[in-house]
Write a sequence for this structure.
């Protein structure tokens, strides 16, 4: 090769390198599009709106920028049904071309979106608030991550608390879909082991309006009710049960004592005072990181602007998952190249510092984290909140059982008549 040709080749390679570096810099500086899905219609509409607030707060705390890349949020709504959720996600992924997907909210939606994620291997899916066990425990997707603990994990400790209260026989009233199955399984796994009995489970449709037939079936010899209803469904049941003269002590599912229910304006609201429950948060938890999160939420979303006195469960779980999405992005300096392989590796290894403590993932990309046993109390201003009775750390999805012995919750599993 003569001298002139060598100079020409070197010049060409140098020019190509400049173009490559420029392209990389442009890619790193381009906005990251994150799809955000929550239920803004149907019985969980209020919770979904607060979930959006939680996700937005995580972005606001970073000034809307990660590793020099602006975070662009594209929102979508569902109504807590799987088909609607998948259609909304499909639009965000296939038409809006989002880079990362955060959502959905409800249990059945989560399973459906997990299944859809397998058809989009170059997009990373991170849960929003969905708490069904099967989302990550059954046929998990390699590109679906959940940084919130799920419904069964949330109920750890409530079985013992019920027995300590003398509730030896409990009727369960719960919505008929995947998330309440998980909540009931989490409660019964411990409760039955300690000798508790569940003579009757009443599964009711999501979005139900009339609970009179269920109320009429409540056995006289049960000591308490476990009510796993959320949003408008919880409000409707509580109102009808009180109007019917119901006087059985109640325990609540995690979503039954969330702020979106505790702050409804019905005259029967005070009937929740004294209700024991369990979940991933407790309003009165005195951890420094929790207090900082609550303060940031209250500043960004005061009650006068539609927020709650304390962030709801939905605000918390969406915040945690969006924070994980952004922390993972920061860990790879905004690099989503190569089918997002480096980003997913960073998410898998991430030890997330959340408001209630550290969260890490198991091999199914499912959170291992903290659960609180709580009781509903009323403050001097008349606000209802949950106070801590017990804190349980490092709760795994199989609840301390061997994986081969663990059974996913269903209508009939477990049973202790």
């Amino acid at each position: 090769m003569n001298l002139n040709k060598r100079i020409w080749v070197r010049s060409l390679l140098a020019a190509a390198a400049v173009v490559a570096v420029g392209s990389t810099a442009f890619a790193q500086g381009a906005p990251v599009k994150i799809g955000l899905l929550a239920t803004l219609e149907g019985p969980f509409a209020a919770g979904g709106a607060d979930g959006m607030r939680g996700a937005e707060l995580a972005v606001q705390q970073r000034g809307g920028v990660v590793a020099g890349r602006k975070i662009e949020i594209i929102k979508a709504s569902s109504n807590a049904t799987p088909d609607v959720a998948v259609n909304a996600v499909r639009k965000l992924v296939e038409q809006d071309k989002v880079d990362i997907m955060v959502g959905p909210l409800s249990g059945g939606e989560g399973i459906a979106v997990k299944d859809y994620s397998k058809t989009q291997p170059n997009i990373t899916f991170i849960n929003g608030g969905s708490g069904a066990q099967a989302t990550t425990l059954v046929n998990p997707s390699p590109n679906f991550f959940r940084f919130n603990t799920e419904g069964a994990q949330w109920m750890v400790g409530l079985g013992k608390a019920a027995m300590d209260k003398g509730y030896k026989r409990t009727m369960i009233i719960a919505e008929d879909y995947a998330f309440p199955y998980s909540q009931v399984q989490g409660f019964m796994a411990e409760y039955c082991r300690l000798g508790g009995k569940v003579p009757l489970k009443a599964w009711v449709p999501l979005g139900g309006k009339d609970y009179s037939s269920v109320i009429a079936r409540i056995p006289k010899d049960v000591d308490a009710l476990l009510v796993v209803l959320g949003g408008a469904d919880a409000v409707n049941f509580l109102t009808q049960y009180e109007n019917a003269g119901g006087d059985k002590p109640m325990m609540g599912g995690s979503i039954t004592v969330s702020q979106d229910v505790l702050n409804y304006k019905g005259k029967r609201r005070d009937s929740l005072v004294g209700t024991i429950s369990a979940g991933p948060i407790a309003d009165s938890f005195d951890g420094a990181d929790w207090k900082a999160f609550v303060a940031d939420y209250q500043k960004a979303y005061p009650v006068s602007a539609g927020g709650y006195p304390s962030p709801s469960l939905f605000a918390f779980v969406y915040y945690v998952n969006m924070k994980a999405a952004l922390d993972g992005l920061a860990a790879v300096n905004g690099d989503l190249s190569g089918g997002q392989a480096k980003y997913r590796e960073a998410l898998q290894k991430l030890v997330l510092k959340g408001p209630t403590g550290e969260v890490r993932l198991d091999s199914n990309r499912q959170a291992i984290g903290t659960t609180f046993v709580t009781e509903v109390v009323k403050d001097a201003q008349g606000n209802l909140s949950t106070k801590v009775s017990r804190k349980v750390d490092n709760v795994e999805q199989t609840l301390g059982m061997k994986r081969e012995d663990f059974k996913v919750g269903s209508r009939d599993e477990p049973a202790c008549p």
